[in-house]
Amino acid sequence: MSEPTIHFWDMDHTVIDHDCDVSWKEFMIKKGLASTDATARIDYFWNQYLTGSLNETEFIEFQLMEFSGRTEWDIQSLSEEHFDAVVKSRIYPEAKRLIDDLRLAGNTLCLITATNGVIAKPLADALGFEHLLATIPEVINGRYSGNIKGNYCGGAGKIAPIKQLCETEQTTIDNCYYYGDSVVDIPVLKAIGHAVVVNPVSELRQTAIVNGWEILEFTL
Prior knowledge:
With 220 residues, this protein is an alpha/beta fold. The chain has helices at residues 20-30, 38-50, 56-63, 72-87, 93-104, 117-126, 159-168, 186-191, 202-211; strands spanning 6-9, 108-116, 131-140, 143-149, 177-180, 194-198, 214-216. The protein starts with 5 loop residues before the first strand and ends with a strand.
């Protein structure tokens, strides 16, 4: 029997034409649950992300500020509202078709993202991903602490959970696929057996060409 093949999909700008960390904060500001002063910090962290220099500790503290002290039910409800109002319409049709085709062909599907799993779950559920690997917000006595549990699931930090899921599914990373859009995905794309880049920025496009990686172009 051949080893299972897992297709690991990055989320933002890969499955969706969107950045959920940005829109979540904007959504919380609009609902009056985050300070309007946060807008400048959104741009600050976005510029860090684009250059591959994100300060993870500062970003996590900023991004989970509105989680702190709220119950799991409260945040889940807000996350589902955010998905319906903002994210659902930004799913790339080509990505959805390919994901559906891969599932019908018997492949295992995993959404893997640096975004926390509470925000990512409605999209994973909507598209039928069997697995979701993401940054995990810490819960203490039923309420979010504002910290994370375990490691940040971004950049090279995705490799360990990918390998762990491969072991669980009795396959190897060499037998699997990773779809990503950003320069921060390069360590993962180099580690995976089959690398696919989606709507790559110029630096990633050049890296993909040099390494012979498949390039996909998705539009809304």
